[in-house]
Design a protein that fits this description.
4 copies of one chain form a homotetramer. In chain A, β8 and β9 form a beta hairpin. Helix content of chain A is 25%, strand content 21%. The first copy, chain A, has 378 residues and is an alpha+beta fold. In chain A, the strands form 6 sheets. Chain A has a 5-stranded antiparallel β-sheet with strand order 1-2-3-7-4, covered by helices on one side. Chain A has a 5-stranded antiparallel β-sheet with strand order 9-8-10-16-11. In chain A, α1 packs across α3 and α3 crosses α7. The model of chain A has no long low-confidence stretch (mean pLDDT 92). Chains A and B meet through β1, α2, α5, β11 and α6 of A and β1, α2, α5, β11 and α6 of B.
Chain lengths: 378, 378, 378, 378
């Protein structure tokens, strides 16, 4: 029931504010005996860390994660794992002028109306800083996925910045780590760099679309009809700050397809069904087919901009506001590792849930091994 | 933890298969003392019922809902409410040929792989027939919303069929109930009728986009950061059969906006904040602003088509399949009342959750009454 | 969050009132592929059915259970299972005089104060009739336990009526089914029969203590520290009508033991640890040891008696009340099959939860097979 | 679903091991605007702290609690509250000899069998040290109770040590804080001191019975039938280390009562119903009557004793064990503040849940104000 928790068996509760003493996450339900050290988590946190390049906020956070419980001699014990990240560079003075006025596009006004109190320093609980907790727990989830579905990999990347979308046929996985945008198209990345520099200098911001893929997942994950894999993925991604839309497979464009175009035809593969296309995004009836699971989401432009915007004050008076703090001109960039983390959490949870209710996949097709699926490339 | 349940305080569990004895829903957490008779629910079920016109499946179901518990002398008692709808027109013979082969785009293959058993008659649990349960419980949720937020109305409508999208400026609310598409644009509805007739005759199907709006909701609904109102709406809509994408406010198009375009500016209104635009879709930081809550989702084309598709059999052999049963050429039509129902469930639940944790809105702005918001039209 | 639900993975929601149309239970999370027909459940319901002998309420209910969903061709499908039992012999007139006055010891007054409405017919939702739902779902849970832990048996019996307690050393398992009290001591049963006849004729009632045992359960069930097996068993039993106390193993008497008396010593057994005593009731640190799991609970005397009691009316006036309906002089008798059902539900759920998080027991002792335990009798 | 969480709306997750870096608790669902500083929590922690007198473990822990999130300027914000207590005096060497053998009566063997890994230092997660987290969160829960039910007080005390039970008619509330046993009977406390000295010197331990009372609670808390107030209290108390039995009101002794003895008669009081007795322990049908809520539980004797006990080693060999660490001869003493904390958590949660589903009590009796109840003393 907790509104700051996510997951069913692999379940975590996130806590902390942007400028409080620390942020962190309490993880319950992790299987025992999994190798885990802070270094595993640090690797992923370093990808999300602010200040990595000129396109992300210049806040300097080392984002050192501590494991306070649930591990013993380098392995998980099955007990709750507490992860804590101390906040260090919290220049609270930067935020003093937003204490009595509401930044448009931010949670300032709704938190105030609802709770009658808000930690306005850096957005408090509503800050994107909370996503560091997600990346940390995602690091644990990845290890659970590795243990239970060793072939599965998770990969996020940016496919659109502003109105510039990459061409699917130019995408190159190896390129993703080579540019500051996690963009699989080198030419697009270069264009985006020029453009984002201009946006940053103008004190403006821009939105983006992120795609995240689980490659070679096992079939059979997910459950009808409110625990569908796509339902949980949609919730996972929509819960990330600034996300305004989520798509699975063909997504919103599915509206424009006919039934014969949309139905992914099936052929016998070497070791299981082989699908001729993947409009479904790897999920049928809420359950994974074994094809790549494909989710996409839109991140709105950062609302913290230097362009003056009209708003009201706590006293209800009309005022203007300019946000002077350190911010991301395209917060979508840092959403990439967050998307991967959320994908990992959803998969880890469904792997355990599947094992709990069903054990292992029960149905066989032809003489194929239970649960095998052949990828499209066969 | 139940994967067939939805909600936190106002929580329901859906049960039943397309061609079993009955379908239904067990609703827990409904406040006591609310007027409720089957007639209230029947009204909404009749809008979703199959066979209403030539554009929906010709299956004849009276969809009579019975209230088996939780009501006494016409009022809810606060106890679990059991709603049951008997299945009547279950022509099981129509489905006999899909017992040993998997319909592309359907859950047939994943249910089989996971569970090793599936009720193939009419899709069993994965059938859109489950949405009748949603509409029934949505009828109860509407009464809860009426009791706690009497000004709030909920309205769904279709904004796109195939690639034909209505122009926002031609939308007319009064038109919605006058055509078989719940389309707010009479001219578009006429065009769609012609088009859908052709699609139906060709044994094909087409996708659609539905928009659903909560009009004049109270501010303050929703909670950080995994119980956000938009997160719960995304999960609610994505859990509906055939949905492949969900958007809040500007949705996927938010990627193309700049920060200054996207930030909905605020001015003092007669009785609270007045917003100059609504890219946020009525939600900031996961909490309702008091503006209209706007959610949109894409429904893929029905996978049951008469066009032959390639697939495999239970034995793993390559076969072709044609779906001969009675089906909707555009299942999006019947998704409209379902969307309204899910919106109602999310609001009812968050109204109770808000009352539970917070009581009533705690913050005031200027001299305004707590929790008031002025709509855009001021 | 639903307050009418129980369990985590194997989770059910109970619904219905004593004199409504029906009662029932919605079961989610049951593994697929388990043989299930109504006959399996009927067997257990028949043991709890009212009117079996002169010591239970003379209400005539056939208690026919229908399976409305979640089964296909005699096997569970992994989908929600809906069980419904129609109410038949609902002599509502018997209860008309309790509509405006509150029976002491009953939920009448608290339901009224809280909800402002109550289905007073037969106690409505607070009636022990709800326990039929428990017995029905317990029948499913037993089949899950059989599938996952085939050696485990569940056995309930009455160990005390009024102040008459059976001597542990005279207990004979084979006796349990031979007398109307599920009493393992034939002599005690005879004494109880005489005594209960007198109590019944006096219009009085009497309390009882029930013991329920899981015999040869697997070790490893349960989880720290709020999902302990004993915690869940305590909740399970305390949720049964009229239960006022729950004990595990030595129970309340553990207070009188010294540490050396209480610690169950361990020796190497043929195929695992062998315990020399079982004060712990088969649970250490919330996790089963593999010894018998022993739970005991006290059932208060039925509050529905013919002896006049003082109370107040709806108008707040002092009145007297005599309960004339058909009732059990010792409701503890029918609590025996209910206790077994709840034990089965707790075990089924923990078997699935254990499989989900841990897979199978991970630790070995000596050369013994994982998870084996030798019973005391070795 | 998390097994380390407790509560529904006011929900916390406990984490940490006895000899890890820290222990703590993540609290979600706390209402906003409640005054809270670490000092409020420290007050209660100091009552539970080890080393207070010669009858509790000599481990020296300052038990300083830090509030890491969810508070702003001395008030709760409605966001998750993270409480952390650093472990300081962790003499791990004391425990090195229990790494390869299982202490009878402890969780050592079950944790090992289930998880295949255990933090054996001080019992790790299964240590009673976890109860410090309960006391800390209980401090927050008390403030929620104060805010919503200002008249309600919570009071725990010890009523039995070994076989020595206090006489109810000699109980004096003012005495509770004056002796090291939280015993309301001065003479008994003196006797217990002599006795416990002997037990301690013998390297032995002894059990105890604790009673906890909520005084002047509001009627209407609790919900049928698996969210009963007594069910949640039973789970709350049974989840505490070493607890083997839980009683509400008359408890196990209810078995010996007749119906007419047991039914608490009702008379009109000055401002609501007045009960002539309280066998029910303040709860009817799972819902509070407004009388004192009375719960009692037995704590087994500490299993860590200096008397040699037979057990087996990791290799399965027969060995003897003596526990040399610092331990409580009667762990029941420190269970008193823990019981109060758990009672506070259950009440806080049900106050919020009640407000959520029902708002305020709906039924009136006579002309009395809604929800008032007159205490027995009227």
């Amino acid at each position: 029931m907790s509104t700051n928790s996510f997951g069913r068996i692999f379940r975590y509760t996130s806590w902390g504010e942007s400028h409080g003493a620390a942020i962190g996450v309490t993880v319950d339900g992790c299987p025992p005996g999994i190798d885990l050290c802070a270094c595993h988590l640090q690797h992923w946190l370093d990808r999300r860390r602010p200040g990595l390049n000129r396109f992300t906020t210049q806040r300097r956070e080392s984002d050192r994660v501590e494991i306070l419980s649930g591990c013993f001699e380098g392995k998980t014990t099955g007990m709750p794992i507490q992860l804590m990240i101390r906040n260090r560079d919290t220049r609270s003075k930067d935020y003093s002028d937003i204490a009595d006025r509401f930044r448009p596009g931010h949670a300032d006004i709704t938190y105030w109306q609802k709770y009658g109190i808000r930690d306005y320093r850096g957005g408090g609980r509503s800050s994107a800083r909370e996503t560091a907790s997600r990346v940390a727990v995602g690091g644990i989830a990845r290890r659970v996925v590795s243990a239970l579905a060793p072939e599965t990999r998770i990969r996020g990347y940016m496919v659109q910045m502003g109105d510039s979308r990459i061409a699917a046929d130019l995408a190159d996985d190896d390129e993703i780590d080579r540019n500051p945008f996690w963009c699989p198209d080198a030419a697009a990345a270069e264009k985006w760099a020029t453009r984002l520099d201009a946006i940053r200098r103008a004190g403006e911001s821009v939105g983006a679309i992120i795609e995240c893929r689980a490659i070679r997942p096992p079939p059979g994950l997910g459950a009808p009809v409110y625990g569908k894999l796509d339902t949980d993925l949609a919730a996972a991604m929509m819960s990330i700050n600034a996300v305004k839309g989520v798509e699975i497979g063909a997504g919103m464009a599915a509206a424009e397809l006919t039934g014969s175009e949309n139905a992914d035809e099936i052929r016998p593969g070497r070791s299981g069904p082989r699908y001729l296309s993947n409009h479904a995004g790897g999920i049928l009836g809420g359950i994974s087919t074994g094809q790549d699971i494909v989710v996409r989401f839109a991140v709105k432009p950062t609302s913290s901009i230097r362009v003056p915007r009209r708003t009201i004050s706590l006293k209800g008076e009309p005022v203007e506001i300019v946000t002077k703090g350190r911010h991301d001109p395209c917060v979508g960039i840092r959403a990439v590792p967050v998307a991967e983390a959320m994908m990992a959490c959803v998969l880890a949870d469904h792997l355990l849930l599947h094992r709990g209710q069903v054990g292992e996949n029960q149905g066989t097709i032809g003489k194929a091994t239970k649960s095998a699926t052949t990828s499209d490339e066969d």
